[in-house]
Amino acid sequence: MRLLDWLVAVSLVVIGIACLTMAATWMMGSSSAIHNFFSILMWTIVPLVIAAIVYFVLQFKQGERGK
Asked: Rounded distance, CA 46 to CA 27, Å?
């Protein structure tokens, strides 16, 4: 995938999370939609970053064994 494809995909995911956050904030009656958005975004991004780091470390170690 090209960089533009990744940017479009990531922006659509962020827009979707923002829409779901606004709807949940409205339903809960909470006043801080921005705080909820960043909280949900962090709960989404942190596990993905950890999984990516583990994946790359395992790929790097597997590449060293194969040589």
From this structure: 26
pLDDT tens, the chain, 67 aa long: 798 998 999 899 889 888 887 887 777 776 677 777 788 778 888 988 999 999 999 888 887 776 5
Sequence spans of domains, the chain: 3-64
- Measure the CA–CA gap between 37 and 21, rounded to whole angstroms: 6
Q: Which residues are CB-contacts of 18 (< 8 A; sequence separation ≥ 6)?
A: 37
Token readout for 9 is 């995909």
> Which stretches of 1-67 are DSSP H helices?
3-28, 33-66
pTM above 0.70, yes or no: no
